[in-house]
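G., the chain you wanted modeled:
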Amino acid sequence: MAQVDAIIIGGGIVGLSTGLALLAARPGRSVVVLEKEALLAAHQTGRNSGVIHAGLYYKPGSVKARTCARGRTLMEGFCERHGVPFERCGKVIVATRADEVPRLEELERRGRANGLTGIRRIDRDELREREPHAAAVASLFVSETGIVDYREVTRAMAREFARLGGELRTSARATAIGRRGATVVVSSTAGDVEARVLVGCAGLGSDRVARMAGLEPGVAIVPFRGEYWMLSPQRAHLVKNLIYPVPDPAFPFLGVHFTRRIGGGVEAGPNAVLALAREGYARTSFVARDALEIARWPGFWRMARRHWRAGMAEQWRSLSRSAFARACAALVPELTEGDVTPGGAGVRAQAVARDGALVDDFAVVEAERMVHVVNAPSPAATASLAIGEEIAQRALRWL
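Predicted structure as tokens:
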């Protein structure tokens, strides 16, 4: 059995960031990352919109707000040092109705409270200069927002992790977790490993890994599939950079928005529909275990009673191209149904509490020699290096 100082379950961007932080704090210590897939960034890390978030939306003082601000700076610095292309292009947030203007003003207040200096209201003339095809009665410009390919970031992290002496095992699904005296033993499909501390960063499987380790996280992961559409090449010029709506504060998802990708093209979406498979990227995806766990979790039914109207609207936009196109046209009126083509899809690991609350902030549960991240929603990719620092600090007391 391999014996190391630390095991990290999950080789996504948060797991690798944590590994980098552990090795930076304790050079020479042995850290192994177990990733169940053969390739890195197969799920949430590699299937998001590729935005480096500024930190506008998050409640001041929250973990999200704090780690996004620091994480954005760390992410840009990491990309510069390791040759990962990124661009700080900025984005506009548009209020398309008068009743959205007070929420837009609250976003501006939050952004300033979170330390953003490049946020300001812009008039119609400047909006026409930045996004000439966007519709708005009022708008904000946020200069700190950027774009990157997080798959490339993850690959660069893996190279740096190996350079610092870390070991990354792919095709290594954790199958059992136990204790042996003052150590933790993880059995996996790539062999057993014994360590002084275990860190769980398993994303879509985070609650299962915590329960496998004997902890009760108090939440269950309910997966939501986000489906993207691409603007046709002939119509991509209608969006210059990023156009976002004013979010509904009663619903945890941003709604349909536009993102220029670092590799080219403009993406529209995502919607947010209940997925019956944790790694279900097609509408027909179904895994009996995943669906049964959703049905058995009392928080799911309480959540469904609160948000069923919004959920039905999201489902309709998933089934109807014309409905999705109408949502796009609310922001860019020139867009029609023929201007969007199916793109990729991702699945968000949404932690839902027993009372039905959608856990909005990062959440961690701990036990002796164990630290488990059980909720890491957006802006987890942006904030990953800062989150990794904080998770590593919790684990270091066992090292």
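The CA atoms of residues 237 and 371 lie 46 Å apart.

Shout if anything looks off.
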